[in-house]
């Protein structure tokens, strides 16, 4: 029996492959035609082969809260998410605009603080953010760039247009899954990729290395990737990117501050390191400057960075722009620094630290998604329509106790893309994390990691919460 999308249900959500009348949207025609030439058995076999390849390549992530074991493969769905050229070009411009403004914002709040003096953002919001790091005041990162690698999470609602859900400016993860998903889809549907004219993403490691080399003035710089260690949830990615760039993967045991420089232990003795792509959160990076209890940092590295003797990507202090309360002000930040309206809008956001917004949230919590300001990975979150009265009551009390720490947003009916469930196509909700590099200009990688909520009806796409991923095809 041939595989078919004829029984696929759009069920009132915006579906990215089919319109409300069942017609195939532009960009998906070639893929649909090719897949429906396959039998169900052959399509399922291709899916199983992709899963086996993931396991063989060791593409895993760690889940700390599970009792049955910590290491899992990231589930992949082999039906791609396809983005048309015009839509992507607009999205790319919007991301460049956003990253440019956020970089200007970071430089301002650690220097002149004009945006605070002009009353665009309340001063107490910045000063109460746990990611606003006072040791970074007056800091001048190389080339004036604070955020070298960004993963900005996008969603689509009922109108099918992208909105920004949140910014990830410290240690955004997932790019290795983006790259490996593409390699798997090249093997799974080689003829479709060739015929559909999909933009390449395979040069990401090269672009990443070029950006890292750009942020130092040293000739032939030594670059390394700094990992917290093998128990970190993204350790596979750290080792993968180091291997793809041809640089050393190091942890705290491999680096030392000596004679005013950061040096790496090698079999030939100590070697000066010029650029560090750090995958360690700011406060754990240097126990002398930040958290004195950190066992995964390098004592003294921050002082070396301040003196311009090592470049760090991303710059310490950039996490203040990850704060979900600061996120609510990004449209104002763009307008303030660039004099432009945002090309990609934010999701409507209620700031619990503002009295009227807080009152609305407490009275309507069952309709809203409530988020802690500095949590990630789907944690510290209440999805109102899916929650119990007990959970709602608990979150109401948390908000009353610490309103600064919470925002709320309407429950968005995330767009859906078909997924292979057993042997048929069913719609599942998705988001998109494009990756942006800021070195000699801002570059947006054409695609990104599409994360998919594989549990029926779920809106939570995080891998640690039962999500998987798809390859994202951006067309020429």
UniProtKB/TrEMBL annotation:
Q: Which InterPro entries match?
A: ATP-dep_Glu-Cys_Ligase-2 (IPR051680), CP_ATPgrasp_2 (IPR025841), UCP005522 (IPR016450)
Which residue windows are transmembrane per the record? none
**Which domain of life does the protein's organism represent?**
Bacteria
Where does the Circularly permuted ATP-grasp type domain lie? Answer: 80-453
Tell me what this protein is called.
Answer: Uncharacterized conserved protein, circularly permuted ATPgrasp superfamily
In the record, what lineage is assigned to the organism producing the protein?
A: Bacteria, Pseudomonadati, Bacteroidota, Cytophagia, Cytophagales
């Amino acid at each position: 029996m041939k595989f078919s999308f004829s029984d696929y249900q759009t069920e009132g959500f915006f579906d990215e492959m089919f319109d409300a009348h069942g017609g195939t949207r532009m960009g998906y025609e070639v893929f649909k035609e090719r897949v429906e030439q396959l039998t169900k058995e052959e399509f399922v076999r291709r899916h199983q082969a992709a899963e086996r390849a993931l396991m063989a390549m060791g593409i895993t992530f760690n889940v700390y809260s599970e009792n049955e074991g910590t290491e899992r493969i990231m589930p992949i769905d082999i039906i791609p998410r396809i983005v048309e050229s015009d839509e992507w070009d607009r999205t790319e411009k919007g991301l460049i605009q956003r990253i440019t403004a956020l970089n200007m914002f970071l430089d301002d709040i650690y220097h002149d603080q004009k945006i605070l003096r002009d009353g665009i953002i309340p001063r107490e919001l910045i000063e109460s953010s746990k990611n606003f790091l006072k040791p970074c005041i007056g800091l001048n990162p190389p080339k004036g760039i604070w955020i070298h690698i960004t993963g900005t999470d996008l969603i689509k609602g009922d109108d099918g247009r992208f909105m920004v859900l949140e910014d990830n400016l410290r240690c955004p993860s997932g790019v290795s899954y983006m790259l490996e998903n593409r390699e798997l889809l090249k093997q799974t549907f080689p003829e479709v990729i060739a015929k559909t004219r999909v933009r390449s993403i395979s040069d990401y490691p090269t672009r990443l290395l070029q950006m890292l080399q750009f942020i130092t003035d040293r000739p032939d710089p030594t670059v390394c990737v700094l990992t917290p260690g093998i128990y970190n949830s993204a350790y596979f990615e750290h080792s993968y990117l180091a291997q793809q760039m041809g640089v050393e993967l190091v942890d705290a045991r491999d680096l030392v501050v000596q004679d005013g420089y950061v040096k790496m232990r090698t079999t030939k003795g100590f070697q000066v390191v010029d650029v560090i792509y750090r995958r360690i959160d700011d406060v754990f990076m240097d126990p002398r400057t930040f958290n004195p209890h950190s066992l995964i940092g390098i004592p003294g590295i921050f002082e070396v960075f301040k003196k311009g003797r090592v470049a760090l990507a991303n710059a310490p202090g950039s996490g203040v722009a990850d704060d979900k309360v600061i996120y609510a002000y990004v449209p104002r930040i763009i307008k303030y620094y660039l004099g432009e309206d945002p090309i990609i809008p934010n999701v409507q956001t209620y700031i619990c630290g503002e009295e009227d917004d807080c009152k609305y949230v407490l009275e309507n919590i069952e309709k809203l998604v409530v988020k802690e300001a500095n949590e990630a990975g789907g944690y510290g979150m209440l999805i109102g329509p899916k929650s119990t009265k007990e959970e709602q009551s608990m979150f109401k009390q948390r908000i009353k106790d610490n309103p600064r720490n919470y925002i709320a947003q309407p429950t968005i009916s995330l767009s859906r893309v078909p997924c292979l469930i057993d042997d048929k196509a069913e719609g599942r909700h998705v988001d998109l994390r494009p990756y942006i590099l800021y070195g000699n200009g801002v570059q947006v990688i054409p695609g990104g990691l599409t994360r998919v909520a594989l549990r029926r009806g779920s809106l939570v796409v995080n891998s640690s919460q039962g999500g998987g991923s798809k390859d994202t095809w951006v067309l020429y």
